[in-house]
Specification:
Layout (H helix, E strand, L loop, with lengths): L4 H20 L3 E6 L1 H5 L3 H13 L3 E6 L2 H11 L5 E2 L2 E2 L5 H21 L13 E3 L4 E5 L2 E2 L2 E2 L4 E6 L1 H9 L2 E5 L2 E3 L5 E3 L2 H12 L3 E6 L5 E2 L2 E2 L2 E2 L1 H9 L6 H15 L4 E6 L5 H7 L6 E3 L7 E3 L5 H13 L8 H7 L3 E6 L2 E11 L4 E9 L8 H15 L4 E6 L3 H5 L4 E3 L6 H5 L8 E6 L4
Parallel strand pairs: 1-2, 1-13, 2-10, 5-10, 13-17, 16-18, 22-23
Antiparallel strand pairs: 3-4, 6-9, 7-8, 11-12, 14-15, 17-18, 19-20, 20-21, 21-22, 23-25, 24-25
The structure holds coenzyme A.
């Protein structure tokens, strides 16, 4: 079968994104973006990406900002734009500008999302949008002698009503405005609305799109942070750009309060949102309390914990027996997942550098902690480690877990496919099956 390079790239990319398409279906994502993003000439591309996510069965809550649009109105009306501690002061003159600007942006977004016109990638896709009084607000009040007037903070999000709209397959559009039970209107920060919505809905993801570049340490992008690492960054000596800090703070609070994954993604890369969601490494920064953050190379102090974890599996014959001495000698090959000081999962990589292959061995997750992707996370980490070591093919020997590996891209192979050295050590009595997976170049 003849294939062009483009076709190959497409087919490979599409196949690799399939597990993510499957995993995200039915999930709730809250996506926040700024007024600057809306004003950008490439905004239509982002709208198409939202439409695509919706068509893949993802339940979407979109939260828009409107800062430049508000600034524009204030300027047109000759109203002074006032800020204190990074927060807009919305006085009686500013409030009508805020309402007009936010209202106009909302209408424009609804129109863009309704666009079923020809010549767009999503032509024909009928999208229903719901916006309304989902956000209850209260005044920020007077702080350090400054009266913030109609600037408010989120008091409550109507999760029941939003869920109902999502059930009915509508995209929910939230604006940075909230209403009080006394009938007043308050100007809110879009990140705050997005964060509270994600927490209230126990969203699978909160994704905040950044106008500027993403989080980096030196030139290296920061791919993942635990909430405590993020807090250290926020309070650390190195000051972050104000916008980035605000977004990072909202994402961190969300992650601490039950949102499993909060992402910061720069919108300056075309398709960044899709890359973040449908490729393994993504392009943004993920803030999560997931056990992945506790995944690290093992040290000699982990030997006891690993032995305890694998002993029952050795007794069952699922794993090959390893003595303490052997484990101590080979500890550098291991990765462990530690939770509250307990080793709850492990895996090892034995590279055979000459043949550019590596053995994945001793993969185990404690029975109390199975069913939450820890095995997948370990496998991904082992694959990354293998790729970093120039390994192009990963093999595994297994007696009882063949299908788990097959479902993750490993193909049946034979003992003859093993590196010579490993073949010599093959235990013919154990009759383990051999599986091999080709790794991508990095
Ligand atoms: C394999 C293992 C690491 C995966 O851990 P995990 O990520 O927490 O995932 P789970 O155990 O919840 O299993 C995830 C899925 O794989 C399936 N699975 C688990 N063990 C399996 C096996 N031996 N064969 C086939 N499928 C298996 C589960 O049924 C589940 O499928 P589902 O999502 O359709 O229900 C874990 O099951 C384990 O420690 N097993 C014992 C040790 C082992 O067999 N290691 C491999 C040695 S070569």
């Amino acid at each position: 079968m003849k294939k062009t390079t483009d076709t190959c790239d497409f087919v490979t990319g599409f196949r690799h994104s399939a597990p993510y398409i499957h995993a995200h279906r039915g999930c709730t994502f809250v996506i926040g973006f700024t007024g600057e993003a809306i004003a950008d000439e490439h905004f239509a591309g982002l709208i198409h990406d939202f439409a695509l996510l919706h068509s893949l069965g993802i339940r979407l809550v979109l939260v828009h900002g409107a800062r430049p649009q508000i600034e524009q109105r204030l300027k047109e009306r000759g109203v002074e734009s006032r800020y204190a501690h990074g927060l807009r002061i919305t006085d009686d003159d500013a409030l009508p500008c805020v309402k007009e600007a936010v209202g106009t942006v909302r209408v424009d977004l609804e129109a863009l999302l309704s666009m079923g016109v020809a010549n767009t990638p999503m032509s024909g896709a009928r999208i229903r949008v719901a916006s309304g009084n989902f956000v209850t607000a209260q005044p920020v009040g007077v702080r350090e002698g400054v009266d913030y007037c109609h600037t408010g903070q989120v008091r409550r999000i109507d999760g029941v009503a939003i869920r109902q709209q999502l059930e009915d397959q509508r995209i929910v559009l939230l604006s940075p405005l909230g209403y009080s039970p006394t009938g007043e209107v308050f100007n809110l920060s879009a990140e705050e609305v997005a964060m509270h919505a994600a927490i209230e809905l126990r969203a699978d993801k909160l994704i905040l799109l950044l106008d500027g570049p993403g989080l980096a340490q030196g030139r290296k992008p920061v791919r993942q942070l635990s909430p405590s690492d993020a807090e250290r960054l926020l309070t650390g000596r190195r000051s972050l750009p104000e916008d980035l800090a605000r977004h990072l703070s909202s994402a961190t609070q969300a992650a601490k309060r039950g949102v499993r994954r909060a992402h910061l993604v720069t919108r300056s890369i075309d398709g960044a949102l899709l890359q973040e969601l449908f490729t393994r490494d993504g392009v943004g920064t993920l803030i999560t309390t997931d056990v992945y953050e506790g995944l690290r190379p093992a040290t000699i102090d982990d030997v006891g914990g690993i032995l305890e974890l694998i002993a029952p599996l050795e007794a069952e014959g699922v794993l090959v027996r390893r003595s303490r001495e052997r484990l101590e000698m080979e500890i550098d090959h291991f990765l462990v997942v530690e939770r509250d000081g307990m080793t709850i999962a492990c895996a090892a990589l034995y590279p055979y550098t000459e043949e550019a292959v590596g053995e994945l061995a001793c993969l185990a997750v404690h029975p109390d902690y199975r069913g939450e992707d820890r095995g997948d996370n370990l496998l991904a980490a082992i694959e990354r480690r293998a790729q970093d070591n120039g390994v192009r093919q990963l093999f595994v020997l297994t007696t009882q877990t063949a299908h788990w590996f097959r479902e993750r891209g490993f193909a049946p192979a034979s003992v003859d496919d093993l590196p010579v050295k490993r073949r010599g050590l093959y235990n013919y009595q154990r009759k383990s099956k051999v599986f091999i997976k080709a790794l991508e170049d990095r």
